[in-house]
Amino acid sequence: MDIVVEIHVPLREAAGTSEGSDPFPWIDQVEDFLAEQEAAEVYDDGEEYEEAYVFSIAGAAEEVLLAVASDLTRLPGIPSGVFAMVTNDEAEEIGLGRRVELPLG
User: Fold this and answer.
1) Least CB-packed of 21, 23, 52, 93 within 10 Å?
2) How far separated are the first and last CA of the chain, in Å rounded?
């Protein structure tokens, strides 16, 4: 059983988006950020869940995964209110596990 950290980003439109443009440009930004991380790997495709967009990472110790999630919250344009769920690869659905408020420290 491997640890998975779900990163729940509130699904809020970016400030100043004009009509016809992508209201959530930060989704691509987060995907690029996570793809560049050497300490963690993207576990699953991001998806909408309740009022958030959820990204999942794995492949490292819990502390490392939470540090990557915490760093993500500091990217420009990321909505506030991001939190993580520490779960595992056997969880049957999103949102099960222990909630961790981000950013850390």
Assistant:
1) 93
2) 28
Indicate whether this model's pTM tops 0.90: yes
Query: What burial letters (b/e) apply to 29-58, b meaning 16+ CB within 10 Å?
Result: bbeebbeebeebeebeebeeeeebbbbbbb
Q: For residues 43 and 41, what is the distance between their CA atoms, to the nearest angstrom? A: 6
> Under DSSP, is residue 43 helix (H, G, I), strand (E, B) or coil?
strand
CA separation, residue 98 to residues 3, 40, 95 (Å): 12, 19, 9
Q: Which residues contact 10 (CB under 8 A, 6 or more apart)?
A: 51, 52, 79, 80, 81, 82
**H or E segment to which residue 63 belongs:** helix 62-72
Q: How far apart are CA 4 and CA 90, in angstroms?
A: 9
User: How many Å apart are CA 12 and CA 30, to the nearest integer?
Assistant: 14
φ/ψ of 19, rounded to 5, equals -60, 135
